[in-house]
């Protein structure tokens, strides 16, 4: 009784996938193909949504994923067979987009080799776009015959060894450039995006081969989805003996970030929880208390970071000027006072956080660099931490120890939020629309309390002035505070001990006891919810300044500008501070999801700014 079914299966597989594609294109993509037929673009592509293939024939869609080399070729061969009103043959690349199952680089396994995969990531590096030979024409020196040899694109150049005119003797050949076919080619390296990494994980990378109209369209720092065939390549270790296999992708299509996979998903239930939270009169305190609760004290720093997480509003003015909304914060302080710890916490909390140290950043440094590629020695453009943190927060530890090249690039990066690279023939502008949270030590490692504080910060004033808030953190012995810190640190260690113990011996420690021990270091708002709250605020809330708030800001700014107040300060009070005031006040309004900036928001901002200025020695 199973027999008839078998027959059906066999019959179905006889219909070649080329036939199916012709039918599919005719049914779903005729207008698009018609357009291609009349277009005179040099290279043409037909973009096909995966879901359409599923709708048409699930089996074809599955075959595409499991055997993409053949199926895509069939698709491209089928394209010219589609009957069109204009009698013209269309040949184009078929590019498949919107594959529902997206993977991370770290999820790739040997099973995925030679299948069609869809991978999300941030562009880390790009090479120049160069021609690559795909069909090489050779002239035989003996008989003058021309032989064509398709290149496989594995990086190795293939040459014929014999010509039919003499099969006994190895031939001598000359490559004919005119007769050969070339395509544009580029290699890009993607790495996992910061928001997809769990605390402390190192991002993994994947090399992508892109060609034709896909070459040259991606820029370092951009978040993209690459779809294509995963390949493996045999490589030989530096010792010259051991062989290993590396993976790369032959790219079929690139999708640029859209809202869908841009940010965290917020469900209607989440939204309800967010709106409820926003109506809490203590929302500001609650958010502040949820930042690094295991770190004792630093209320102003935590307030500043809270504002930074929400950020002000980006303004695009009619004359083309763009004013950043991101808030930059700098912590300068003695060693061992939890600066690094705070930075790491923020990176984990922020919807998009990147941590880097000024001392040991990658070859691209903090900003970006043109570097010699380790693979083939060509020049590549590599994104540094600030570019990778585009639309997020870059936490830069030991920023005072950054490389001199970064120092100059940082000026542009912080204010214009872009980085220009002009080196080795590479000319590019990369976006780095991120907030910077920097940490630095005093010049001599520790503050000398008897010397002028401002003189002990190892940063040029021009750079200092680009921070909206600077905090000076001195580690002065203070019995009461020290006792509290000790108490708090010991409490968190105790909670950690109970937790570790419970993992190996569940019975001796009750859930209640553990919860009780965790209480002092538990954030008021769960990090997952807070992350969504922040994303929601940044997506939906664009507050507007009330007249009263504007008056309050003007008054405060004029007071700050009064002569005598700040003459010896390392940070001149300029219009930059005024912009900072606006940004911080907007962020404050955003924190309670309010679309009005009120005098209370300004007051809160003034308090934080005054604390910050006093510490720098500007009172
Ligand atoms: P820094 O980067 O300022 O040199 P770290 O972040 O490396 O310092 O901190 C050193 C250690 O001291 C960390 O384990 C941190 O948790 C602890 N520590 C210092 N100050 C505090 C504090 N106020 N509350 C809790 N832990 C603290
Ligand atoms: Mg440190």
Provide a descriptive summary of the structure in words.
With 619 residues, the protein is an alpha/beta fold. It has 3 domains: 3-97, mini-chromosome maintenance (MCM) complex, chain A, domain 1 (2-Layer Sandwich), CATH 3.30.1640.10; 105-262, OB fold (Dihydrolipoamide Acetyltransferase, E2P) (Beta Barrel), CATH 2.40.50; 268-352 and 434-615, Rossmann fold (3-Layer(aba) Sandwich). Helix content is 36%, strand content 24%. The protein has 20 helices and 22 strands. The chain has a 5-stranded mixed β-barrel with strand order 3-6-7-9-8. The longest helix has 26 residues, at 479-504. It is elongated. The relative contact order is 0.09. Mean pLDDT is 85; it is low at 4-12. The chain binds adenosine-5'-diphosphate and magnesium ion. Magnesium ion binds next to helix 11. Pfam families: MCM, MCM_lid, MCM_OB, WHD_MCM_arc. Residues 283-489 form the MCM C-terminal AAA(+) ATPase domain. One of its GO terms (biological process) is DNA replication initiation. Keywords: ATP-binding, DNA replication, DNA-binding, Helicase, Hydrolase, Nucleotide-binding.
